[in-house]
Design goal:
Spore Coat Polysaccharide Biosynthesis Protein SpsA, Chain A, elongated, 2 domains, five-stranded parallel β-sheet, eight-stranded mixed β-sheet, 29 strands, 339 residues
């Protein structure tokens, strides 16, 4: 079983972290996000993964130089330019010589979905494409996918205005596809699978949906990234493990609660870290408070600083002593180079 994993996006919603590291290489509970995605696919029977790369491709090839990620053989396909979802899937599949039924997933979705069941349902129905669906409270931010009584997809409704969606079942970003789907994607052109390819197949009645209420999070925003870590701590996702790495230096007068703290980090005297992610080698100064925030690897939060409300500190940054920020960004957005 082969899978194409889309990891080529710029990760703009997670900046400034993704100015330094592609989104899928950010740690999720001390493990790079991509390894969690690949391990989940492997559990479903996937034996080879093709990473569809675009932004900072060398970061992935450098991280997995042997071509193995989470115990699975990995191949790389680097887009010459952004090709959107269908364009990226087709480019990667063609580059890897995929010629049979395959799985395609978004690399920033963390889920407990039974991918093997989606695969089996797809084969049993003789579908050209099968889409995993998940329920959400507010479907207006997603692509809503209504089904008929036999599970066929009736339409794709992208980001409907609040209160107008026909259901709360949305595209969960996991697909099982036949190679014939690639024929609908013109090489070298930006093509959306949701807006162009699937609607063409729906007209022929060959797209099915599989509804699942299993765990699902699109981890592409600071709020969602923090939510995944809360879910890990509370046992709603993944296997339990130590939230604070073994070699972290936490002062006896400091408090760390409900947080992940990476290897080699330092938490100074009287500091408070709560509901946050502090990555490898970061340092929280004496008397500092970090609540519901993210501190990138090797960054320093100055003494007496107070960071809260989804503040994000990038990699290798220094937050000056006494800084107070709610939903802040370090470095600030006006200094970012746009991709």
């Amino acid at each position: 079983m082969q899978a194409v994993v889309l990891v080529g996006g710029f990760g703009t919603r997670l900046r400034p972290l993704t100015l330094s590291v592609p989104k899928q290489l950010l740690p999720v509970g001390h493990v790079p996000m991509i390894e969690r995605v690949v391990a989940h696919l492997a559990a479903a029977g996937v034996t080879e993964v093709v990473l569809s790369l675009g932004y900072q491709p060398d970061a992935f090839t450098d991280r997995y130089p042997s071509g193995v990620c989470a115990g699975v053989r990995v191949r790389y396909a680097v887009e010459p330019e952004p090709l959107d979802t269908a364009g990226a899937i087709a480019f990667a599949a063609r580059a890897a010589g995929v010629d049979g039924t395959f799985v395609a997933v978004n690399g920033d979705v963390l889920t407990s979905l039974d991918v093997a069941q989606v695969w089996t349902t797809h084969r049993d129905r003789g579908a050209a494409a099968t889409i995993a669906l998940t329920p959400v409270e507010d479907p207006s931010r997603f692509g809503v996918v209504p089904l008929d009584s036999e599970g066929r997809v009736e339409a794709f409704i992208e980001k409907p205005p609040p209160g107008t969606a026909p259901s709360n079942w949305i595209n969960a970003g996991t697909y099982v596809l036949e190679p014939e789907v690639l024929d609908l994607v013109e090489p070298g052109r930006r093509v959306s699978i949701e807006r162009e390819v699937f609607p063409r197949l729906v007209a022929d009645g060959r797209v099915f949906g599989v509804q699942s209420e299993t765990y699902w999070v699109d981890a592409g925003t600071p709020a969602a990234y923090l939510q995944v870590h809360r879910d890990l701590l509370e046992g709603r996702f993944g296997e339990p493990f130590e939230a604070v790495a073994g070699d972290v230096a936490v002062d006896s007068t400091a408090t760390v609660e409900g947080s992940f703290v990476g290897a080699g980090a330092i938490v100074g005297a009287g500091a408070l870290v709560s509901g946050s992610v502090v990555m490898d080698g970061a340092r929280i100064g004496a008397g500092a408070t970090v609540v519901d925030s993210i501190v990138g690897a090797r960054s320093v939060v100055g003494e007496g600083s107070v960071l809260s409300g989804g503040t994000v500190v990038g990699y290798d940054e220094v937050v000056p002593d006494g800084t107070v920020a709610e939903d802040g960004r370090f470095p600030p957005a006006e200094t970012w180079e746009t991709a």
